[in-house]
Every structure is written in C-alpha cells, then in structure tokens.
C-alpha cells in the first residue's frame, strides 16, 4: 500500500502523541513507536529528520521513567535505519542531548544502563560519524569495567566489608565497547593501544557470571576484526578460555565463544594450528549434538 495512505499518517499521529502532556500517553506512544520502528526499518529513512526532531524534543519534556523508554526508541531507530543515521544534520540533532545525559549521570547510577545500550546502537549505526564522541565514551566504559572488577575483587577478599557490585555496569560497558569496535572499526585502534582493555578483558572472560563472559567474548570478536594487532599478543591466554566455554548449556556464551574463535582463526590463518586441540573436540561435539540451535550451528 502507498506510504502516504498508511505509514505516514500513523507515524505522524504517534509522534504527536509522543509529545503529549500526559505521561501515560507519552509512555504508550513511545513504546508503540519503537514497535513501528522494528517493523518499518529503512522505510522510515525519508522521515528521519522529523522523527529525530520529535524524539530530541521529548528529552526536554520527559521525566525519569519515560526517559528510559525514549532511550529504547532511539536505540531501536538506530538499529532499524543503520548507517542512514550517519548524516551531519542528524548527528548534530541527536548527539548533544545524549552526551548531556551521559555527562550528568554518575558512574553508580543505574540509569546509565539504558543510556549505554542506546549509545551502543547509535555508535554502531553512525560508524565514523561517532568519532568526535568516541574517546570520552570509550574511556568511561573501560573505567566502568575496571571499577566493577576492583569492587568484585574487594568483595571476594573482604565480603564482610565490601558488598558485591552490580555487574550489569560491566556488562553494558562491554556491550558499548563492542558497539564502538563494530562501528568505528580500525579507528578504535589508538584507543585500545592506550588502554588496559586487553588485561581487563582477560579477567572478564573468566568471570563466574555467564552474562559477563557472553559480553566479553562478543567484544573479543569485535576487537579481533577491528584491531587484531592488539589481540594477537594475548591469543595464548585467550584461546584456552574460549575452549573452556564451548558448553551449549550456556547457549549465548557458547555462541559468542564459537564466533570469537572463528574470527581469530580467520586472522591467524595457518598459525591457528597450535591451538586447534584446545577447541576442536568441543566444536565437533556441538555439531553432532541433537537439537543444537540453528544459530549456533551456523
């Protein structure tokens, strides 16, 4: 059906309701618009300017709870339209309010979670358009990972004195670093070189929490693609850990570990030979298991 008959009127009315004076109407409209974004995908591209103006204006109207839904709508938009978002006018509209929120939220504020998830989608979509913002975002993510690991170590050594940290801070920071690595590709190389992310990643890959390992292996795969020269010196430490995580009981961990092994093998080529015994038997077991999910088999 022609867009002008259905998509455009629906989108226009939803965007009006996103700016409604009633908080419950805002919430319902913003959630509905996120669903529309998932379905319409790149069909929204001709209307991006109007959509972004509305979503950005909503930043000045929304209170705490609805802001979290707004982050989701912006992240979903970025996932849906991808690199079409990478235009100076769109970047100049979208990034200032996001960076303003990023700057005023403290490291221990849980409202960082949805903002980090949103920025991860935006960074992947903007690609080189995110370059002006990448250094402070990268450094803060590394700092969040480092801080959470320090709190975790303190809790293990003195559980009576230090409570266990919320590892979600580390997980969303690792995911945003993955978004940066995927979006910026080789541009992330200098940031990696000047940080201790590889040492931190080595610790995260051995964490007892499956979700931490899952995000760690995703980041390892993305860094392998983006700047393998910084991953290569650590391969002998990383591959045994990857081999130990090829357990389909933890399907998402196994999936990401398998993918990271594949990316590393592509880069190493024939130099993968010394490490094959660490992973091959487990990979063959996974292929031959009944009911192995299709995504993992791929």
Automatic annotation (TrEMBL):
Predominant subcellular localization, coarse grouping: cytoplasm
Subcellular location: Cytoplasm
Stretches assigned to the Importin subunit beta-1/Transportin-1-like TPR repeats domain: 196-295
Keywords tagged on the record: Cytoplasm, Protein transport, Repeat, Transport
This protein's record includes keyword Transport: yes
A cellular-component GO term for this protein: cytoplasm
Biological process according to GO: protein import into nucleus
PANTHER family: IMPORTIN BETA
Name of the protein described by the UniProt record: Transportin-1
Taxonomy of the source species: Eukaryota, Metazoa, Ecdysozoa, Arthropoda, Hexapoda
């Amino acid at each position: 059906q022609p867009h002008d008959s259905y998509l455009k009127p629906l989108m226009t009315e939803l965007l009006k309701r996103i700016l409604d004076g009633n908080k419950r109407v805002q919430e319902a409209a913003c959630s509905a618009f996120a669903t529309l974004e998932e379905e319409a995908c790149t069909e929204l591209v001709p209307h991006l300017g109007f959509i972004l103006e509305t979503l950005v204006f909503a930043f000045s109207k929304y209170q705490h709870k609805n802001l979290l839904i707004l982050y989701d709508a912006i992240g979903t938009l970025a996932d849906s339209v991808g690199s079409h978002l990478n235009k100076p006018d769109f970047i100049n509209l979208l990034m200032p309010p996001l960076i303003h929120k990023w700057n005023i939220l403290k490291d221990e504020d849980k409202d960082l979670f949805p903002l980090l998830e949103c920025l991860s989608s935006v960074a992947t979509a903007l690609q080189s358009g995110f370059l002006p913002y990448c250094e402070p975002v990268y450094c803060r993510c590394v700092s969040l990972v480092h801080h959470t690991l320090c709190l975790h170590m303190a809790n293990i050594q003195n559980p009576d004195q230090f409570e266990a940290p919320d590892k979600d801070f580390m997980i969303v920071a690792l995911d945003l670093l993955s978004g940066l690595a995927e979006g910026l590709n080789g541009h992330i190389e200098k940031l990696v070189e000047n940080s201790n992310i590889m040492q931190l990643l080595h610790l995260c890959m051995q964490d007892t929490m499956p979700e931490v390992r899952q995000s760690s292996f995703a980041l390892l795969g993305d860094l392998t693609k983006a700047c393998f020269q910084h991953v290569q010196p650590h391969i002998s430490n990383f591959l045994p850990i990857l081999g130990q995580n090829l357990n389909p009981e933890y399907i998402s961990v196994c999936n990401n570990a398998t993918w990271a092994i594949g990316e590393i093998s592509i880069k190493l080529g024939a130099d993968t030979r010394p490490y094959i015994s660490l992973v091959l038997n487990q990979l063959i077991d996974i292929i031959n298991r009944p009911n192995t999910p299709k995504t993992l088999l791929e």
